Amino acid sequence: DTAVSQTPKYLVTQMGNDKSIKCEQNLGHDTMYWYKQDSKKFLKIMFSYNNKELIINETVPNRFSPKSPDKAHLNLHINSLELGDSAVYFCASSQKGTKNIQYFGAGTRLSVL
Amino acid sequence: AQTVTQSQPEMSVQEAETVTLSCTYDTSESDYYLFWYKQPPSRQMILVIRQEAYKQQNATENRFSVNFQKAAKSFSLKISDSQLGDAAMYFCAYSRYSGGGADGLTFGKGTHLIIQP
Fold first, then answer.
1. Measured between alpha carbons, how far is A23 from A109 in angstroms, rounded to an integer?
2. Which contacts of A68-74 are long-range, i.e. CB under 8 A and separated by 24 or more positions?
3. CA atoms within 13 A on the CB side of B53
4. CB contact under 8 A, B91 and A43
5. Which residues of chain A, if any, have pLDDT below 50?
6. Is A95's Cβ below 8 Å from some Cβ in B?
7. Does the beta-carbon distance from B43 to A101 stay under 8 Å?
8. What is the pLDDT of residue B10?
9. In this predicted model, what pLDDT tens digit does every residue of A40-69 receive, in sequence order?
10. B101 and chain A: CB distance < 8 Å anywhere?
């Protein structure tokens, strides 16, 4: 059983479309994250979320929004996709009290044409 | 804001030899965590080793060990007896100690490690 799973693994879409990436963790963790890895492999935090707070990186456009239907899921919605949104998006999770050890999903490669 | 710097974009080592990857960071916090993650071509992010800033003893995990110098804000990774499977991008990462809050990791730009057979 995959601990942190993301779907889809690949996503190709046109500029201007709206898309979602799903993330589920079966580790019982209370905190989930979204990261963006650009074409130069640089990883940057986008959102951190637990049931009490959402922390948004101030550089993330408001076209990006996380949605959490429950503790095990944190989906990423992206509106009006732009060419610059092309990247690999990683979901991760951690549990309070475990020294912030984060477990990552396999990533979703988003290509905007 | 915290920053993490990896000054070696690429390193190459012969199989079975030892290699050290460098990482420095900048923070005004006294309590924090440091990590090394490995990203092979499969894209999966794999935790290699971690260190709590309040611990003076350097962390070790089998062939992987760190040299943590808190005053110098340095956190290097040593890989002994390098194996072909060690070939990957290695990322150094920092996390603030937040008492259980939701803190993202701040990553360096990565070091591409090549293992020569």
1. 14
2. A68/A32, A71/A29, A71/A30, A72/A24, A72/A25, A72/A26, A73/A22, A73/A23, A73/A24, A73/A25, A74/A23, A74/A32, A74/A33, A74/A34, A74/A47, A74/A49
3. 22
4. yes
5. none
6. no
7. no
8. 97
9. 999 999 998 887 678 778 789 999 999 988
10. yes
